Each structure stands twice: as structure tokens, then as C-alpha cells.
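sry for the spam today, last one i promise. C-alpha cells for design, 486 residues
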């Protein structure tokens, strides 16, 4: 039987094959229910409340992607970190330098390296997304490998020249209802303004990301404070003016359509400082006198201040913790941030978040969405916290865990304590715009199969499961991120 199956598989070895039952259980009863649930939502609109797509793509209706290498490979640290782990230098892959120096790129050569190493992604979420993307978005029929690299490159390049592949047209084709970008607190949001003024009805909204001005241990903190003063129109010479500037920028982002903020820190440490202590730390930082302890205290204090502002202005607060950023100093020094060297680390929430929750955890006006890279905290801390505090919701599996198995583990670990309705549905968290449909499709299939398992076991009836699949795929994201209908 095995030899016969192997021979049958070999016949189609050169073709992309997207099974209609991919990611579903091999159990016939569960698989049948999963199909029915997936069919309920497979064509539902996409709500993308958190991600990193460049808004410049939509500001110009004739936006040019560049080459397939520029679109699909160079910006995607999910891809080049795998090749780096196998000994390929980032220089050979055309990754831009931190100092802005010229990078010599042979785009076809880089693409060839990518294709020859695509087998590395077998079984990974990146491999699943890219295979779906190549087949469903770009119409590639042949498997992507060293032999087909040139033909696939030419095919995608030709597709990218067509009017129907312009970002605005793909946005509409993908049935995206809203797409949130992530923008620095000092960003003038010119691209968002241009989108608004263009008359196009696609909904692209900013998200307020203040890490560059909150984390005083960043090497560019002083420069960022200068930018903050310029865009606010006054010098940031005191802690009080700093807080005023943050409130000013949040108000502007909200006027431009933002419904959320986004914050990242190594740990969820929070602490409430006196205004004088905060002023003292701020003044020393302005003079370049910074240390690890004061940086931690200042960030922990500002997280509470950001929470206070969210209670007052209604912006949803997202908090991502547990990533040891730029773990590889050689890569960071030469290539800068976000180059695939961020590593999960153990994280503690119950004690670290208590000062924040003592002040605001019981306030139903607040929505605090927590994300972690430490899966061990889901059942031990995060689900119990979300299952008690009105302000807390749990973000979906993030970064290293937005995968077939990561999503299953997440559902199993949080459901019994937090329930389904203290989670916020799915967000794609991507820089790779063409991959958005594939990411949502994988999540919808995983959720359909997980719910089907509950139906087979008699935990849910079919009617409840149908309600839940719509909530997980669409409605929870809209509600949690306060996304009103157009």
C-alpha cells in the first residue's frame, strides 16, 4: 500500500497541490464537520486589526512593487532567517545595511538561492503561506524549486505589471474590510492622509506605536524625542511636556482613524513612579545618562500612563511581551532591527502586571490585549487573568506561534479558563501584504477543525460551533478592536 501511494504521489511531484482538506483531522467525522464549518467563513471579509504592511502601498494607485525578490523575499525576516541559519550570509541575500550603505543586488541570483532552499520551509507556517500565496494569488502551478525558479520569477514579475495586481485592487480582491498599519508615534501619517484624500474607499487605519520614545535605552531615543518635539511644535524639555506630547499624538492618530495602540517590551513589568522620579529619570536621559534599572522603571511607568490614556481616549491597548530583540549582536550592528534575530524568552505576567491591573484592571472602559511568545504562560497566567479582569483580552498566537500547531495549542490552553469570548479572533501580524489571505485561510481552517473536534466529542453542538466559527473568523476582531462598520 505504501509503495502504491508513493507512486501516485510521484506523478504530481512537479505540481503545487493545495488539498481542499488541508489542516483538517484525518478522522472522517471530524473532517466532515470541519469542512462544513470552514465553508461557513471561507469567503467572509478579512479584518486585519494588527500588522505591519507599509501604507505607502495604498497611497499611490499606481504603486510599483519592484521585483519579485523585493516584494516577497528581502522584507520577510521569516524567510531570510531560515536561510541564515543554514549558512547563507545576509550580504548574499541582499538585506539592507543599517547605515544605509549601498547594497549590490542581483535579484535573480537571490531568487535562485531562495528557490533552491525552499525545501527548508516544508511543514512550517511560512511554507504553508507561501505555497498558498504562489498558487492562489499569483497563479503559479509548478512547485517552487531551483529548476523552476526562473520561470516562477518571470511569471510573478509579469503578474505584478498587470493593473489587477496593484495593491488597491488586490485589497478589494482579498475582501479586506479594514487593514491596520503600525506607525511610530512621530510619524506624520502622510501616506494615510493621501489615502483619505484620494477618494478610494479602502479602509487603511494607523496604529499608534510609541516604543521609540518610551524605551529610553534605545540608542535612537534622543533623536526620536527631537522628532517628537518637531512634529508637536514644542520642545520636549520636561516629563510633563513629554506626556502632553504623547496625548497630542494619540489624539491625532485617533482623528486619522486609529482604534488601537501597540506596545512592546521584553517583560510585562509595570510600576507607578512619582512624577518627580519620572522627571528625574527623564532629565538624566535627555543628558545621555541612562542605565538599565532606570530604563526598566521608566518603561514600566509609561505602560501604566499609556493605560490611563487608553481609558480616557478609548484606544485599544495591545501589549506584546517576551521577545529578546536583536539577540545576535553582529547582525544587529551591521543590519539593524528586525533581521530575524529576535528570540522568545520566559515571561511572567501575574506579578509584573499587578501595578497596572490594580489601577485599571477592573475598568471595563479599557481593552488591554496581551500577546506573548512564552506559551507556558497561557494556561498558568494569561487565561486566568483574562478570565477574571474585565479589561484583559488575549491576543492570538503571535509570531513564532501563529502556526498550525501553535494555534491548536493556544485554543486548548486558554479555552477552559478564559473561554472563547475573552480572546480577540485572528490578526495576521504581517509585513507581506500578498500573504494576508493565506494567513487568514490557515487560521480559519485550524479553528474549523478545532471546533469540529469539540462537536465530535459532544462539547459543543453544531449550532454553537457555527456561531463560534463566525466569531473567531470575523466578529471578535471587529468587536475587540472597536472597528465600527463603514
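last one done:
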Amino acid at each position: 500500500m505504501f509503495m502504491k501511494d508513493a507512486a501516485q504521489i510521484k506523478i504530481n511531484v512537479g505540481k503545487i497541490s493545495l488539498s481542499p482538506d488541508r489542516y483538517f483531522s484525518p478522522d472522517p467525522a471530524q473532517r466532515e464537520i470541519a469542512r462544513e464549518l470552514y465553508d461557513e467563513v471561507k469567503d467572509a471579509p478579512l479584518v486585519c486589526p494588527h500588522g505591519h504592511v507599509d501604507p505607502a502601498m495604498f497611497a499611490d494607485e499606481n504603486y510599483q512593487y519592484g521585483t519579485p525578490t523585493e516584494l516577497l523575499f528581502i522584507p520577510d525576516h521569516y524567510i531570510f532567517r531560515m536561510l541564515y541559519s543554514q549558512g547563507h550570509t545576509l550580504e548574499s541575500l541582499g538585506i539592507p545595511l543599517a547605515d544605509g550603505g549601498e547594497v549590490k543586488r542581483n535579484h535573480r541570483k537571490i531568487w535562485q538561492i531562495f528557490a533552491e532552499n525552499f525545501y527548508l520551509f516544508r511543514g512550517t507556517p511560512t511554507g504553508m503561506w507561501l505555497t498558498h500565496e504562489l498558487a492562489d494569488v499569483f497563479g503559479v502551478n509548478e512547485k517552487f524549486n531551483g529548476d523552476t525558479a526562473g520561470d516562477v520569477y518571470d511569471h510573478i514579475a509579469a503578474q505584478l505589471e498587470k493593473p489587477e495586481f496593484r495593491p488597491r485592487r488586490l485589497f478589494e480582491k482579498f475582501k479586506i474590510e479594514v487593514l491596520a498599519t503600525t506607525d511610530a508615534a512621530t510619524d506624520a501619517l502622510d501616506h494615510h492622509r493621501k489615502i483619505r484624500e484620494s477618494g478610494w474607499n479602502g479602509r487603511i487605519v494607523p496604529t499608534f506605536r510609541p516604543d521609540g520614545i518610551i524605551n529610553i535605552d534605545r540608542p535612537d531615543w534622543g533623536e526620536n524625542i527631537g522628532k517628537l518635539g518637531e512634529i508637536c511644535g514644542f520642545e520636549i524639555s520636561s516629563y510633563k511636556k513629554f506626556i502632553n506630547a504623547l496625548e497630542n499624538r494619540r489624539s491625532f492618530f485617533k482623528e486619522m482613524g486609529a482604534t488601537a495602540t501597540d506596545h512592546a517590551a521584553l517583560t510585562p513589568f509595570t510600576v507607578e513612579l512619582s512624577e518627580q522620579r519620572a522627571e528625574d529619570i527623564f532629565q538624566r536621559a535627555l543628558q545621555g545618562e541612562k542605565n538599565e534599572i532606570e530604563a526598566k522603571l521608566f518603561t514600566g511607568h509609561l505602560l501604566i500612563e499609556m493605560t490611563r490614556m487608553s481609558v480616557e481616549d478609548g484606544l485599544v491597548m495591545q501589549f506584546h511581551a517576551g521577545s529578546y530583540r536583536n539577540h545576535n549582536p553582529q547582525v544587529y550592528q551591521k543590519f539593524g532591527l528586525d533581521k530575524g534575530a529576535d528570540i522568545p524568552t520566559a515571561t511572567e505576567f501575574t506579578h509584573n502586571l499587578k501595578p497596572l491591573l490594580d489601577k485599571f484592571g477592573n475598568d471595563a472602559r479599557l481593552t488591554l490585549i496581551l500577546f506573548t511568545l512564552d506559551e507556558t504562560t497561557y494556561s498558568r497566567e494569561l487565561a486566568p487573568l483574562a478570565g477574571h479582569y474585565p479589561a484583559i483580552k488575549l491576543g492570538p498566537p503571535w509570531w513564532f506561534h501563529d502556526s498550525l500547531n501553535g494555534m491548536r495549542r493556544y485554543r486548548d490552553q486558554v479555552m477552559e479558563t478564559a473561554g472563547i469570548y475573552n480572546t480577540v479572533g485572528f490578526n495576521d501580524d504581517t509585513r507581506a501584504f500578498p500573504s494576508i489571505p493565506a494567513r487568514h485561510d490557515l487560521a480559519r481552517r485550524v479553528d474549523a477543525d478545532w471546533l469540529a473536534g469539540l462537536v465530535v466529542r459532544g462539547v459543543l453542538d453544531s449550532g454553537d460551533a457555527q456561531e463560534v466559527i463566525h466569531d473567531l473568523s470575523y466578529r471578535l476582531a471587529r468587536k475587540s478592536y472597536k472597528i465600527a462598520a463603514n
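The longest strand covers residues 260-265. ok im logging off now
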